[in-house]
Amino acid sequence: MPLPKREQDEDRGAFMSRCMSDDKMNEEYSDRSQRAAVCISKASEGLDMIAQADFQMRFSEYGYEEELTEDNFYVPAEAEYEDFGEPEEEWDIAEAKPGLWENIRKKKEREGKNYRPAKTEKEGRPTQEQLKRAQSEPSEKQKKALDKNKDGEITKEDYINQVLAKPLGMGYDEWNYHSNK
Description:
Largest sheet: none
Distance between the termini: 87 Å
Radius of gyration: 30 Å
Order of helices and strands: HHHHHHHHHH
């Protein structure tokens, strides 16, 4: 069976990748280490002994970059993943990525009496578009993150606590008090 040959200006690393992923080489040399030895010997042809030893050592230490094709690309199915009994992490987008009002509240806490809102957008003041977006209804992705009991329903209390009151440092009752004045 003909072995792949390195082309005239082909990089030796690129040849190793092509050689290792070659279909005929996979059939002939199903053992990966044997296939690597054959490809190394073909890739290091024409080098002096020191350069050959260096190439072989570099390959054995660092490996090669295999060319990614449809044939050798593999994504495991959900059933193939193993469950090691580790607890699943719950990720809350409201806590992980706080919004505009939460950032303003933190700045007020941090600066205390010295807090002064930014005068211009250049100094960090939110634009009108950012203010409108912060006050708008949540997207489907945000609603899913707000649904704590995973029943598909978001109560008014959950929504106000997570989206409106919490970023301002208020609770539901305090929000109702201020919003009904």
